[in-house]
Amino acid sequence: MSSPRPALFAALSGLLFGLGLAVSGMADPDKVLNFLDPLGDWDPSLALVMAGALMVALPGFAWVRRRGAAVCGPLQLPTHTRVDRDLLLGAAIFGIGWGLAGYCPGPALAGLGRLAPESLWVVPAMFAGFWIADRLKR
Hints:
The chain has one domain (5-137). The longest helix is centred in the middle third of the chain and has 23 residues, at 45-67. Helix content is 69%, strand content 0%. The protein is mainly α. GO terms for molecular function: RNA binding; structural constituent of ribosome. The chain crosses the membrane at residues 46-64, 85-103, 115-133.
């Protein structure tokens, strides 16, 4: 029987991430869209949230890399490091969707949890995109 520890860490990480989204206001698509509109009602707070996230994440990644192991399971680092057509196309599709809806996957799921009307179409569209991308890769 496998240890429940990885699942517990995953659940706690998800809860902490969701709490961070809620506290920072990043689960609100209007806040995100205002950040993406520097000629309109621009809100620079998303840049501050991103900077704060980097200040926490970068030392954590460095620690895990030096340690050679994750806290709860094997260390899985990406092996693909080249910028290619698939990466650029995926980034463009992600950016277009983010700019149109004001949601990326984490906040979209958080919005679904609070039954935000936009998330009721964004989340199914997101999963349809995952499915289509998976089929195209095969």
